[in-house]
Amino acid sequence: MEKHSRTSRSSLSGRIVAVVFASVAAISIAIPAANAATYTYANNVPTAEGVERDSGMRTSITGGSAAVTLGIGTQSIATYYPAPGYTTVAYASSAAPNPTVISHKRVSNARSKCSWHLNGLGGHSPKLTCKVIW
Amino acid sequence: MRFALLAASAATATIVAVSTALPAVAGDGAQKPIEAIVPAFAQPQTASDVVPERVDLVALGGIASDSTRFLGSDGYAEYWVGRGNAGNVCLIMAVKGEAQVVASSCATITNFYRQGIGLVAGADPKEPATSAEAYLLPADITSDDLGLGMQARSSAQATHDSLISLRPGSNEGVRTIERHDGSSFRFAPVSAALGDR
Protein backbone atom coordinates (compact mmCIF):
# COMPACT_ATOMS: atom_id res chain seq x y z
CA MET A 1 0.00 0.00 0.00
CA GLU A 2 2.78 2.33 0.97
CA LYS A 3 4.61 1.43 -2.20
CA HIS A 4 1.50 2.12 -4.24
CA SER A 5 1.08 5.47 -2.53
CA ARG A 6 4.70 6.43 -3.26
CA THR A 7 4.26 5.43 -6.86
CA SER A 8 1.16 7.61 -7.17
CA ARG A 9 2.87 10.61 -5.62
CA SER A 10 5.89 10.13 -7.83
CA SER A 11 3.69 9.77 -10.88
CA LEU A 12 1.75 12.91 -9.94
CA SER A 13 4.96 14.90 -9.45
CA GLY A 14 6.20 13.70 -12.78
CA ARG A 15 3.02 14.80 -14.48
CA ILE A 16 3.18 18.23 -12.82
CA VAL A 17 6.76 18.67 -13.93
CA ALA A 18 5.86 17.56 -17.44
CA VAL A 19 2.94 19.98 -17.66
CA VAL A 20 5.00 22.86 -16.27
CA PHE A 21 7.86 22.19 -18.67
CA ALA A 22 5.42 21.89 -21.57
CA SER A 23 4.00 25.28 -20.63
CA VAL A 24 7.45 26.83 -20.45
CA ALA A 25 8.33 25.31 -23.81
CA ALA A 26 5.14 26.68 -25.36
CA ILE A 27 5.80 30.16 -24.01
CA SER A 28 9.41 30.00 -25.16
CA ILE A 29 8.28 29.13 -28.68
CA ALA A 30 5.79 32.01 -28.64
CA ILE A 31 8.56 34.46 -27.71
CA PRO A 32 11.37 34.02 -30.22
CA ALA A 33 14.82 34.75 -28.88
CA ALA A 34 16.83 37.43 -30.62
CA ASN A 35 19.51 35.20 -32.06
CA ALA A 36 20.80 37.28 -34.95
CA ALA A 37 24.59 37.54 -34.91
CA THR A 38 25.63 40.97 -33.68
CA TYR A 39 28.79 42.95 -33.01
CA THR A 40 28.52 45.80 -30.51
CA TYR A 41 30.74 48.67 -31.58
CA ALA A 42 29.44 51.23 -29.10
CA ASN A 43 28.64 49.71 -25.75
CA ASN A 44 26.87 52.21 -23.52
CA VAL A 45 29.41 54.88 -24.48
CA PRO A 46 28.86 58.49 -23.33
CA THR A 47 28.36 60.35 -26.59
CA ALA A 48 27.75 64.02 -27.28
CA GLU A 49 25.02 65.11 -29.68
CA GLY A 50 25.98 64.67 -33.31
CA VAL A 51 29.10 62.64 -32.58
CA GLU A 52 29.14 59.51 -34.72
CA ARG A 53 30.27 56.11 -33.49
CA ASP A 54 31.64 53.89 -36.25
CA SER A 55 31.99 50.14 -36.54
CA GLY A 56 35.00 50.20 -38.82
CA MET A 57 35.09 48.05 -41.92
CA ARG A 58 33.02 44.85 -41.68
CA THR A 59 33.22 41.97 -44.09
CA SER A 60 29.45 41.44 -43.94
CA ILE A 61 26.53 43.55 -42.70
CA THR A 62 22.79 42.88 -42.87
CA GLY A 63 21.64 45.60 -40.48
CA GLY A 64 22.20 47.38 -37.21
CA SER A 65 20.64 48.92 -34.14
CA ALA A 66 21.04 52.07 -32.07
CA ALA A 67 19.71 53.09 -28.66
CA VAL A 68 20.44 56.15 -26.55
CA THR A 69 19.66 56.60 -22.86
CA LEU A 70 17.66 59.73 -23.45
CA GLY A 71 13.96 60.39 -22.97
CA ILE A 72 13.72 62.69 -25.99
CA GLY A 73 15.60 63.25 -29.22
CA THR A 74 16.34 61.01 -32.17
CA GLN A 75 18.89 58.26 -32.67
CA SER A 76 20.06 57.11 -36.08
CA ILE A 77 21.85 54.12 -37.53
CA ALA A 78 23.24 53.71 -41.04
CA THR A 79 25.11 51.19 -43.12
CA TYR A 80 27.40 52.83 -45.65
CA TYR A 81 30.39 52.60 -47.94
CA PRO A 82 32.98 55.21 -46.97
CA ALA A 83 34.64 57.82 -49.14
CA PRO A 84 35.73 57.97 -51.84
CA GLY A 85 32.35 57.33 -53.36
CA TYR A 86 30.45 57.62 -50.09
CA THR A 87 27.18 55.71 -50.43
CA THR A 88 24.47 55.00 -47.90
CA VAL A 89 23.11 51.44 -48.13
CA ALA A 90 20.37 51.90 -45.54
CA TYR A 91 19.51 54.18 -42.67
CA ALA A 92 16.86 54.56 -40.01
CA SER A 93 16.01 57.00 -37.25
CA SER A 94 13.47 56.84 -34.46
CA ALA A 95 12.49 58.77 -31.39
CA ALA A 96 14.40 57.95 -28.20
CA PRO A 97 14.14 56.07 -25.93
CA ASN A 98 12.73 53.51 -28.38
CA PRO A 99 15.66 51.72 -30.09
CA THR A 100 16.09 51.87 -33.85
CA VAL A 101 16.73 48.69 -35.85
CA ILE A 102 17.36 48.23 -39.56
CA SER A 103 17.88 45.22 -41.75
CA HIS A 104 18.78 45.20 -45.41
CA LYS A 105 20.24 42.98 -48.08
CA ARG A 106 23.67 41.63 -47.20
CA VAL A 107 26.55 43.91 -48.15
CA SER A 108 30.29 43.32 -47.97
CA ASN A 109 33.15 45.54 -46.84
CA ALA A 110 30.83 48.25 -45.54
CA ARG A 111 30.60 50.11 -42.24
CA SER A 112 27.94 51.02 -39.72
CA LYS A 113 27.63 54.29 -37.83
CA CYS A 114 25.23 55.75 -35.29
CA SER A 115 24.52 59.02 -33.53
CA TRP A 116 21.80 60.94 -31.74
CA HIS A 117 20.32 64.41 -32.19
CA LEU A 118 18.17 66.91 -30.32
CA ASN A 119 18.11 69.95 -32.57
CA GLY A 120 21.40 71.14 -31.12
CA LEU A 121 19.95 71.24 -27.61
CA GLY A 122 21.68 68.17 -26.21
CA GLY A 123 24.05 69.64 -23.64
CA HIS A 124 25.31 66.44 -22.09
CA SER A 125 26.49 62.99 -23.17
CA PRO A 126 23.95 60.21 -22.71
CA LYS A 127 25.07 56.66 -23.33
CA LEU A 128 24.82 55.28 -26.84
CA THR A 129 24.73 51.59 -27.72
CA CYS A 130 25.08 50.53 -31.36
CA LYS A 131 25.38 47.13 -32.97
CA VAL A 132 26.05 45.64 -36.37
CA ILE A 133 23.90 42.73 -37.46
CA TRP A 134 25.69 40.34 -39.81
CA MET B 1 11.94 13.75 -5.82
CA ARG B 2 13.81 16.78 -4.50
CA PHE B 3 15.01 17.48 -8.04
CA ALA B 4 11.48 17.22 -9.34
CA LEU B 5 10.22 19.75 -6.80
CA LEU B 6 13.11 22.11 -7.52
CA ALA B 7 12.52 21.80 -11.23
CA ALA B 8 8.81 22.44 -10.79
CA SER B 9 9.51 25.48 -8.64
CA ALA B 10 12.00 26.87 -11.11
CA ALA B 11 9.66 26.29 -14.02
CA THR B 12 6.76 27.89 -12.19
CA ALA B 13 8.94 30.91 -11.35
CA THR B 14 9.86 31.14 -15.02
CA ILE B 15 6.21 31.16 -16.04
CA VAL B 16 5.43 33.87 -13.51
CA ALA B 17 8.40 35.93 -14.69
CA VAL B 18 7.41 35.58 -18.34
CA SER B 19 3.79 36.38 -17.57
CA THR B 20 4.68 39.54 -15.71
CA ALA B 21 7.00 40.54 -18.54
CA LEU B 22 3.99 40.65 -20.88
CA PRO B 23 1.80 43.27 -19.24
CA ALA B 24 -1.64 43.90 -20.65
CA VAL B 25 -1.68 47.34 -19.11
CA ALA B 26 0.66 50.16 -18.34
CA GLY B 27 0.77 53.05 -15.93
CA ASP B 28 0.33 56.74 -16.54
CA GLY B 29 -3.39 56.48 -17.26
CA ALA B 30 -2.97 53.56 -19.64
CA GLN B 31 -4.60 50.97 -17.45
CA LYS B 32 -6.24 49.44 -20.48
CA PRO B 33 -5.95 46.22 -22.42
CA ILE B 34 -3.44 46.46 -25.26
CA GLU B 35 -6.31 46.12 -27.75
CA ALA B 36 -7.73 49.42 -26.46
CA ILE B 37 -4.42 51.17 -27.14
CA VAL B 38 -3.58 49.38 -30.40
CA PRO B 39 -6.94 48.38 -31.98
CA ALA B 40 -5.21 46.31 -34.65
CA PHE B 41 -4.49 43.69 -31.98
CA ALA B 42 -8.22 43.25 -31.36
CA GLN B 43 -8.55 41.36 -34.63
CA PRO B 44 -7.12 37.87 -35.18
CA GLN B 45 -4.14 37.63 -37.48
CA THR B 46 -5.01 36.85 -41.09
CA ALA B 47 -2.84 35.84 -44.02
CA SER B 48 -2.54 39.46 -45.10
CA ASP B 49 -1.08 40.36 -41.68
CA VAL B 50 1.89 38.04 -42.08
CA VAL B 51 5.10 39.83 -43.04
CA PRO B 52 6.98 38.78 -46.19
CA GLU B 53 9.98 36.48 -45.82
CA ARG B 54 12.52 39.29 -46.22
CA VAL B 55 11.32 40.87 -42.97
CA ASP B 56 13.54 39.30 -40.28
CA LEU B 57 11.39 39.68 -37.18
CA VAL B 58 14.05 38.23 -34.87
CA ALA B 59 16.66 40.74 -35.98
CA LEU B 60 14.12 43.55 -35.75
CA GLY B 61 13.59 43.12 -32.02
CA GLY B 62 12.41 39.59 -31.37
CA ILE B 63 8.98 40.38 -32.77
CA ALA B 64 6.58 37.44 -32.51
CA SER B 65 5.56 36.29 -35.99
CA ASP B 66 2.00 35.56 -34.88
CA SER B 67 1.57 39.07 -33.49
CA THR B 68 1.99 41.11 -36.67
CA ARG B 69 -0.92 43.10 -38.10
CA PHE B 70 -0.80 44.89 -41.45
CA LEU B 71 -1.48 48.61 -41.07
CA GLY B 72 -1.27 49.76 -44.65
CA SER B 73 1.01 50.92 -47.41
CA ASP B 74 1.76 53.95 -49.51
CA GLY B 75 3.97 54.55 -52.49
CA TYR B 76 7.09 54.24 -50.37
CA ALA B 77 6.65 51.46 -47.81
CA GLU B 78 4.46 48.86 -46.16
CA TYR B 79 3.70 49.06 -42.45
CA TRP B 80 2.89 46.56 -39.71
CA VAL B 81 2.52 46.58 -35.93
CA GLY B 82 3.74 43.68 -33.80
CA ARG B 83 4.70 42.64 -30.27
CA GLY B 84 8.39 42.48 -29.45
CA ASN B 85 10.43 41.38 -26.47
CA ALA B 86 8.64 41.78 -23.14
CA GLY B 87 5.42 42.59 -24.99
CA ASN B 88 6.67 45.87 -26.42
CA VAL B 89 4.70 47.49 -29.24
CA CYS B 90 6.71 47.61 -32.48
CA LEU B 91 6.24 49.57 -35.69
CA ILE B 92 7.70 47.73 -38.68
CA MET B 93 8.41 49.44 -41.98
CA ALA B 94 9.47 47.71 -45.20
CA VAL B 95 10.71 50.37 -47.59
CA LYS B 96 10.17 49.69 -51.26
CA GLY B 97 13.28 49.49 -53.37
CA GLU B 98 16.26 47.42 -54.35
CA ALA B 99 18.06 47.87 -51.02
CA GLN B 100 15.34 45.87 -49.23
CA VAL B 101 15.46 48.15 -46.21
CA VAL B 102 13.29 47.10 -43.29
CA ALA B 103 13.25 49.05 -40.03
CA SER B 104 11.55 48.80 -36.69
CA SER B 105 11.24 50.63 -33.43
CA CYS B 106 9.71 49.10 -30.32
CA ALA B 107 8.32 50.89 -27.28
CA THR B 108 7.12 49.78 -23.90
CA ILE B 109 3.38 50.12 -23.58
CA THR B 110 3.87 53.04 -21.21
CA ASN B 111 6.17 54.88 -23.62
CA PHE B 112 3.88 54.08 -26.53
CA TYR B 113 0.92 55.56 -24.67
CA ARG B 114 2.95 58.70 -23.91
CA GLN B 115 4.52 59.35 -27.31
CA GLY B 116 3.66 56.68 -29.87
CA ILE B 117 6.39 55.42 -32.20
CA GLY B 118 8.04 57.45 -34.96
CA LEU B 119 10.28 55.92 -37.58
CA VAL B 120 12.15 57.16 -40.65
CA ALA B 121 14.04 54.75 -42.87
CA GLY B 122 15.29 54.27 -46.37
CA ALA B 123 18.22 53.72 -48.66
CA ASP B 124 19.55 57.27 -48.72
CA PRO B 125 18.51 60.22 -46.53
CA LYS B 126 19.42 62.58 -49.37
CA GLU B 127 16.96 60.86 -51.70
CA PRO B 128 13.44 61.30 -50.30
CA ALA B 129 12.00 59.01 -52.95
CA THR B 130 13.89 56.11 -51.35
CA SER B 131 12.69 56.88 -47.82
CA ALA B 132 9.56 56.62 -45.71
CA GLU B 133 8.42 58.25 -42.49
CA ALA B 134 5.62 56.98 -40.28
CA TYR B 135 4.11 57.37 -36.83
CA LEU B 136 2.00 54.85 -34.95
CA LEU B 137 -0.33 56.51 -32.48
CA PRO B 138 -2.34 55.22 -29.52
CA ALA B 139 -6.02 54.75 -30.33
CA ASP B 140 -7.16 57.92 -28.58
CA ILE B 141 -4.84 60.18 -30.60
CA THR B 142 -5.68 61.01 -34.21
CA SER B 143 -3.84 62.76 -37.00
CA ASP B 144 -6.42 65.53 -36.69
CA ASP B 145 -5.41 66.01 -33.04
CA LEU B 146 -1.90 66.64 -34.31
CA GLY B 147 -3.02 68.93 -37.09
CA LEU B 148 -1.79 66.48 -39.68
CA GLY B 149 -5.08 65.29 -41.12
CA MET B 150 -4.76 66.01 -44.83
CA GLN B 151 -1.00 65.73 -44.85
CA ALA B 152 -1.11 62.32 -43.22
CA ARG B 153 -3.65 60.84 -45.59
CA SER B 154 -2.06 61.89 -48.83
CA SER B 155 -1.08 58.91 -50.96
CA ALA B 156 -1.83 56.41 -48.23
CA GLN B 157 -3.67 53.26 -49.26
CA ALA B 158 -5.63 51.08 -46.86
CA THR B 159 -3.82 52.79 -44.03
CA HIS B 160 -4.97 52.06 -40.52
CA ASP B 161 -6.37 55.00 -38.57
CA SER B 162 -3.56 54.82 -36.02
CA LEU B 163 -0.85 55.17 -38.64
CA ILE B 164 0.41 58.45 -40.06
CA SER B 165 2.68 58.28 -43.07
CA LEU B 166 4.44 61.42 -44.16
CA ARG B 167 7.19 62.49 -46.49
CA PRO B 168 10.53 62.72 -44.69
CA GLY B 169 11.30 66.22 -43.51
CA SER B 170 7.79 67.52 -44.14
CA ASN B 171 6.83 67.68 -40.51
CA GLU B 172 8.33 69.84 -37.81
CA GLY B 173 7.50 70.89 -34.31
CA VAL B 174 6.70 69.08 -31.10
CA ARG B 175 3.05 68.94 -30.12
CA THR B 176 1.63 68.06 -26.72
CA ILE B 177 -1.97 66.93 -26.29
CA GLU B 178 -3.63 66.85 -22.88
CA ARG B 179 -5.82 63.82 -22.34
CA HIS B 180 -9.07 63.64 -20.40
CA ASP B 181 -7.46 61.24 -17.92
CA GLY B 182 -4.91 63.90 -16.94
CA SER B 183 -1.99 62.40 -18.82
CA SER B 184 -0.47 63.94 -21.91
CA PHE B 185 0.68 62.73 -25.32
CA ARG B 186 3.86 64.19 -26.76
CA PHE B 187 4.33 64.03 -30.52
CA ALA B 188 7.94 64.59 -31.58
CA PRO B 189 8.83 64.35 -35.28
CA VAL B 190 11.81 62.19 -36.13
CA SER B 191 14.65 63.92 -37.90
CA ALA B 192 17.26 61.86 -39.69
CA ALA B 193 20.62 63.58 -39.32
CA LEU B 194 23.63 61.60 -40.44
CA GLY B 195 26.77 63.10 -41.85
CA ASP B 196 28.59 62.06 -45.01
CA ARG B 197 32.15 60.93 -44.72
Could you describe the 3D structure shown?
The complex is a heterodimer of chains A (134) and B (197). With 134 residues, chain A is an alpha+beta fold. Chain A has one helix and eight strands, in the order αββββββββ. In chain A, the strands form two sheets. Chain A has a four-stranded antiparallel beta sheet, with no helix packed on it. A four-stranded antiparallel beta sheet of chain A has the order 2-7-4-5, with no helix packed on it. In chain A, strand 4 and strand 5 form a beta hairpin. The longest helix of chain A is centred in the N-terminal third of the chain and has 29 residues, at 2-30. The longest helix of chain B has 19 residues, at 2-20. Helices cover 18% and strands 25% of the residues of chain B. Chain B has one domain (13-193). In chain B, the strands form three sheets. In chain B, strands 1-2-3-4 form a four-stranded antiparallel beta sheet. A three-stranded antiparallel beta sheet of chain B has the order 5-6-7. Chain B is α+β, with helices and mostly antiparallel strands and 197 residues long.
SSE topology:
The complex is a heterodimer of chains A (134) and B (197).
Chain A: H1 2-30, E1 38-46, E2 53-54, E3 61-68, E4 74-81, E5 87-95, E6 100-107, E7 111-117, E8 127-133
Antiparallel strand pairs in A: 1-8, 2-7, 3-6, 3-8, 4-5, 4-7
Chain B: H1 2-20, H2 34-37, E1 69-73, E2 77-83, E3 89-95, E4 102-107, H3 109-115, E5 117-122, E6 131-136, H4 149-153, E7 163-166, E8 175-178, E9 184-187
Antiparallel strand pairs in B: 1-2, 2-3, 3-4, 5-6, 6-7, 8-9
